[in-house]
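User: Some background: our group keeps a shared notebook of sequences we're curious about, and every so often someone picks one and asks for a predicted structure to add to the entry. Today it's my turn. The entry only has the sequence so far, pasted here. Could you supply the structure so I can complete it?
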Amino acid sequence: MEDPKEFAERTFVLPCLVENANIRIDFVFLQCSYEERALRRVKPVRLKDVDVKFASLEDSIIHKIIAGRPHDIEDVEVVLAKNPDFEREYVLHWPREFDRALQGDLTDSFQKLLKEREPYREDQFIFSLSGFLST
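Assistant: Of course. Here's the predicted structure to add to the notebook entry:
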């Protein structure tokens, strides 16, 4: 990164690298009530002798939906597949709020991912199979 100060002022994120451990850490400066809420929901994890706070599963999903890059969407798909019991309403609430404020379509994008993850019901499969066999 050529100018970290300019990047931090523009994005409210200061990326740092702990070189001897090759770990990247992003310091995020609060901009809205969502970020404040997300910081209250962090999950502490003990790594050796240090408590490290990680974004909750749901907030990680929200961050990736907002980023919207192809690899972020792929990450969301994997997280949803491995964690079907996440707090769905919490995750849906914040994209709706951002959509209202920014006239976006984050909610639609996330609901599409959810729909793609829904398992087929047996009756859907039988109907589809019977249609296939009769042709």
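Suggested note for the entry: Confidence is low (pLDDT under 50) at residues 120-135. The CA atoms of residues 19 and 25 lie 11 Å apart.
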